[in-house]
Prior knowledge:
single chain, alpha+beta, Thrombin, subunit H, Immunoglobulin-like, about 25% helix
Amino acid sequence: SDGEVYVLDGGNARVQVFDREGKFLRKFGNEGRGPGEFRSPAGLALEGGTRLYVGDRGNNRIQVFTLLLTPSVPAEVAAQPKMNEVQLSWKPNPESILEHYKIYRADAPNAEFRFLASTAEPFFVDRGLPSNRAYHYRVSGQAREGNESALSKTVSAVTPRLVPTSPKKMRIDASEKQITLSWMPNLEPFVDHYRVYRTRQVGTGFEQVGKIDRPLFVDGALADEALYYYQVTAVGKEGDESPPGEVVFVTTPRASLTAPPVEIVRIEMREIFASAYKHYESHPLGKVVLRNNTDSPFPPAMLTFSIKDYMDFPTEIAVLEVGPKQESDLLIKPVFNNRILEVTENTPLQSEAALTFYIAGEAKTVKRNFPVTLYERHAMTWDQKIRIGAFVTPKDTPVADFARSVIQPYVDAYPNLHPSLVYARTLYAALGVYGLSYIVDPTSPFQEFSEKAGAVDYVQYPRDTLARKSGDCDDLSILFLAALENIGISTALVDVPGHVFVMFNTGLAEADRQSLGFPDSLLVIHRGTVWVPVEMTMVGSTFTRAWQKGAEEYRDWLAKGKVEIIEVQKAWEQFSPVTLPPTEMRQLKVKQEDIEAKFKDELETLGRQRLTNLSAGYLAALKKTPDDATALAQLGILYGENGMYPEALEQFQKLLAVDKQNAMALNNIGNIYLLQERLDDARQAYEASLKAEPRDTGTMVNLVRVHVRAGRKDEARKVFREAVAEDPRVLRRYGDLAAELGVTK
Length: 745
């Protein structure tokens, strides 16, 4: 046991303990009849490294000793400070008797170390810490049914200050009596807002003129022909302010003596996310506000909106009429071209709004530019979680080829399990065999970005995750969603604080959930149907573990009222999947034999669990009422689905003993004989079933299949025509048989 050798010393009525080198360590036991005493010990056995069994013929008993072992002190403990957290790691203990590790923390090296948490893995993340604080840690090991080790050496870490970087790529534009500032948004998730500073003379210093949460500031009511200087800083959530960005300056133009008859008062635009480029065709990106400065209704005009290079044609909006001294809001729904997906970094752009109108038959045009920020295609914010719809790309060639090739050998291969479970497990297992792994992206950890709705996260497309073989929880989940959607299984993303995982729809109604064969604790009932949750960060382990973990997470967060479900197909209603450019990525293939070698008998085990779960109720009913027809029938069907043909036949025979003309029992007996290639026995069973239920088209078709298999096509054709005459839908429902037999009506 963990490097110790237990030797029974029968002659001295004791057990001696040695190390692997044969060095004596200790002994226990004496001659006698009391606890821990022996008269004629004859054998010993060790279970689980913690229980020692000693057989004693002299006392006619077996004594059980619990070994109170002590793990070694965890070694090579390291503390790595990160944003609002400290990551601890250490060398794994070698002992098999280790149950978990205990982490202790203190605010000062000489202060009391208090228990913080326990973990089964040799790492721990202490989250939610304030910045610029020192923390001190020690770690111990706890044996299963044994002792706790001494504490490790102290390790310390200071959480970094959350000081944002200076805002970059400042842009400044002047118009009549106002100046517009824009810059690239900071990507740190802890940025809370920006401060804008202004001066007329650099030597006199800057004063704050604005506090905003977007990288855009409009400074109004300014003097004409005046020079203004600006600087911008970013401020973290704990108040730390960045160094100011570059100084920018501009001179306001001279105001016109008379106001134009109509003008573009202002433009309000949101940031552009390349991933959502289809979304803007039906949902406004922003608005242009017009004002009629005259005392008469302004005649019809045309507004155009354009962004160079990324729109093939300007968006045109007919302005029918603007009342005297009135303003009119025009919603902008631009149509972008696919070039927007080729942008590889966040980019500042200039948009242009142009209003064309006629005065005395002469065309007049007023224009106004407005800065906008284009985020590259991997960027998104979690303020609208349905944005993930754009990233779930089931028709993308690498995803479609992978999903279809993996699933093909499993079609109809496990009739005892619901197809959605078989296919989901197969895709999940294939990703594990392929080598996919969970890795937190240090530049955009999901936990940090998801907790600040406006923070811009970096999300991989499924093809990216396949190419890189790794991703954060959102990346892995989005890949699995796309693969399942490709094979027709509806999916949803489950959002909980700081984390996401997946669930898929079995399609079973809530009332039919028992037919799935698994306990309610593993299922989610959502909008009347049964869903299965899966934790994707466990990829590489068994699907069963990932399912159990997903169900556990769902229950825990549901109890706290902090679960949000984002159905992919509903998300697509607003954020359609991106149409990615062609890729030279080679087709990824995972073989069935490799899946089953790595996850041996997993589907068979799930099938046995389902059989046990479902049969328990029927067996209990039969114990109470041996001739319960419903229980006999359902148990027989269940055994048949699981390939237990003798057991299934036994149940149907018992049912016939209760009801000799039971058509269902006879039909199912025929089905079993057909599976066993006992064609003549199957024919007799189907014919007997039809005597009891002459109009059952399902049994007729079963009889047709027996005749075809036996080479009796004329008889098969006759019975098939009888079935079609009984129900014309048979012709369409069993098109394969109709074609083979040449029956067209």
